[in-house]
Amino acid sequence: MLQSRPARPDGSLSVSRPAPLSDDDCVALLQWMLRHDTTALQAREEGFVAELAKYLAERGIASRIIQGDEGRANLVASLESGRPGPHLVFCGHCDTVPLGDRVWQKSPFGAEIEGGRIHGRGSSDMKGGLAALIASFLDFSASNDWSGRLSLAVTYGEETGSEGAKLMAGDRSLDPFDAMIIAEPTSNRVVRSHKGALWLAFTAMGRTGHGSMPQMGLNALEMVIRFREGLLKLDALTASDPLLGRPTICLTRLHGGTQVNVIPDRAVAEFDMRTLPGQSHEDVLAEVRAIAREIEADYAGGKIVVEALNSLPALATPVESPLIHAALETRRELGMPASEAGGASYFTDGSVLQAPGTDILILGPGDPGEAHQTDESLDLSDFLAARLIYTGIARRFLCSPE
User: Fold this and answer.
1) Does residue 177 belong to any structural domain of this protein?
2) 280-316 confidence digits (pLDDT tens)
3) Residue 281 within any structural domain of the chain
4) pTM value?
């Protein structure tokens, strides 16, 4: 069984040898990550990336920490080959979702290993992928047989709407790139396309009244029901994509009403819409607001406000991309089952980071079904295989010409 290397007394990572990392070192790195609570919106990512920066510095790699909101930060590091070539980026987020209400069978921050699996919040989504990226990044720091530039980008706040990626794209702390690998869990399969996310808030303001005389009020909850019915008939929902299927929309939060015999005069509903490559969120919003205006006209004296809480476009990298070709060839060379480049229904930081770059690949260890679940865990053989895949892809992409 793989054994972890002891940490320092203060709990920080220790370095026992120069790069590249052994398999034991890789597992120790992942265990440290899992023991570091980086639950989203708890302002803990800055401490995580600060310790990671020290770890890289001890291996001779300088990095930049870019401060976001208080207690939150991104990290960017780069390796230069000294020869002209493309710019490839390894990208991963360090935040995780909350633990949930169910009791965990193993400590969510214990990083326990049992039966070839490592347990803990973020093991699958996506500290396993991030640790494998860092191991591969260190593989390149110890070699000089490649061309171009390799960067490591660690973001915060992906789970709450890609806040860190938005900062990274906005402040240009990540230079324009030719290709990017994002280590979200895909069971190490190649994903070249994913849906976008448009999160909507619908606020209805009506008029209160007695439950026995509904005609005297304007029922805000009924306005929400009408709005939802209209959303299900959006023209945008009729689109289709060969990898991603159709767009979806669902009601995810609803607040309204004070007591059973009082007509509610205010209600707020939030909707999660997933869109396809090529769909304009501005066009969708125009159609949504037209539905709201129709309902407002039917409820004279009422008022409706529609707000886009988040707008993250879909991602599509061409199947003929050299990055996709490199990924498929690397899997084949490593003896993995043949597969086509697929799509995913979730969004990633690639939604935002496609602005400064071009081709983006999603590939990482872990079953996507494990993400956000109680008792999240990761198969260690898949984790170690991911490191080999990343290194293989990067070598194909950054290989020095003969």
Assistant:
1) yes
2) 999 999 999 999 999 999 999 999 999 999 999 999 9
3) yes
4) 0.90
Phi, psi of 58 (to 5 degrees): -65, -15
Segment 216-252, tens digit of pLDDT: 899 999 999 999 999 999 999 999 999 999 999 999 9
Residue 312 has a pLDDT of 96
* 48, two tokens: 């995580």
Question: Does one domain contain both 364 and 281?
Answer: no
β-strand pairing of 117-119 with 315-316: unpaired
- Which residue segment(s) compose the domain that 208 sits in? 196-312
Give the CATH number for residue 275.
Answer: 3.30.70.360
Residues 249 and 188 in one domain: no
* Dihedral (Cα; 184, 185, 191, 196), 10-degree rounding: -60
The reply to whether 291 and 333 lie within a common domain is: no
Residue 172: how many CB atoms within 10 A of its CB? 9
E strand intervals along 61-190: 63-67, 73-80, 87-93, 113-114, 117-119, 149-155, 179-182
Widest CA span in the chain: 84
